[in-house]
Structures are given as C-alpha cells and as structure tokens.
C-alpha cells in the first residue's frame, strides 16, 4: 500500500519531549514516492560524476577502492538540483526549528550517502563508527544543530540503518568523538560508554521518513547485509545566527566565510541558505 507524504505535519509537544529525552525523533513520511524516485536517480548521476552546473561538490569520499566501501559526498546541493530541493525543503526547516525552538534554520552542509549491500561477506566496509556530529563541528558556537537523515528505501538494521544512543546528547561533547571513519564499533562503544548507560536504538524508517538527531547524539551504523544498496540524503542544519568559534578545529565550512574569517562571524552567506524563517 502506498503511504502518503505528510507535507502538513506539525511538531507536537510529544515530539519535542521525545527529542529532548532521547536526542532524536523519527518523522512521518515527508518525501513522496515520485520524489524518492528522482532522488534515487540523483544518486546514480552523482556517482557517475554527472553533475548539474560546472562546479564540484565540497568533498567526495570513498573509504577505499573496495566496491563494498561506503560512498559519501558532501554538499551534493552544489552539483545536483534534486538534492538541493530536498536539503533546502522548508518543511525540514520548520520541523527542525520547532525541535530546536528557534525561528530560523539554515543549511550547514549536506551529505549524499551510499552504503553497498554486502550480503554475507565478512567485511566491516560499510560500518559508520559511533560518533557525535558536533565532534566535527566545533568551529560553530553552538552544538544545537540537527542532522536530518532521509531514507530513500525502507531502512532498518538488515540494510545497515542508523542506530542512536538514547539520551547521549546529554553527555556533552565527548573527547575525540569525530570517529565516523573508525569501523570498529565495539572498540568505540567501549571507549565512549565509559560507565554510562549505552542504549542502542535502531532508526527504523520507511522510504521518505527521516530521523532528526541532535548534534551531540552518538550514532553509527553497521553492515548492509542485503544485496541492495542503502541510499540516503542527509541535511545538517543549524539555527540562524550560528557563529564561528575560532581556534578550535578545522572544518571545510570555515573557508566559506572568506579568507580571513573572524571570531563570531555568522555562517550566513549563500553557502548556508535559509531553509526556514518563521
Ligand atoms: O549513514 C549513516 O549510516 C550514518 C550517517 C551519519 O553519521 C550522519 O549523517 O551523521
């Protein structure tokens, strides 16, 4: 049965309480099936290097030459119009604004992620290590940021869906938590749990649903044990007025502030589009 996208969905008090308690919230279906088809085609074009416009994405990672490795490209919106439409979707902005209790949301950057299906092969190639997104984003002056992970197929643990650690956004920034590329989940769990309650919760999504997690929420994902790739588009968003915190950590977004960024300069130029304003 076809599930309709809920384009008029409004965040409820219960949604806010779930986000505040667990550090993440699962949306209803936001993206309709036609748009999902277009976004899956956008993936194909991107991975074959067929870009809209004459530019390049910000980064393109393939963790190795291994075909089983995760592929990830940052700022797909620079090179693909379908990706641009979804990561600047005002509905995603509005839901994020409600969860962060703010009036304006801008895009921080996006990711286009492809996790190959490896069936029964013995490899950790597709794993995304437990990490906090703010572990990478310490050049911004608030950790109140949200990652919106949009599923382009039904997604659960069998195809390497994301897991979050419930309540871990309350732990603050944990040292060395920028460990997306460390595929040893057990080692990372041991390192970060450090006597705290480590409760792994799967983000089970139908195609077109999204998970919204806080910048400090630990998350990661395991192998895609199916024979089909797991496709997603991810919008990382911030509150309007988020500024530069100098001298802490390098990030590619800093150079988008210009050659001489200054402490407190807001990430508010055309590289960081407003996606919602109340
Ligand atoms: O796609 C995944 O499994 C992880 C993605 C992720 O860590 C993120 O979007 O912050």
From TrEMBL:
Keywords: Dioxygenase, Oxidoreductase. GO terms for molecular function: 2-oxoglutarate-dependent dioxygenase activity; iron ion binding. It holds the Pfam family PhyH. This is Phytanoyl-CoA dioxygenase.
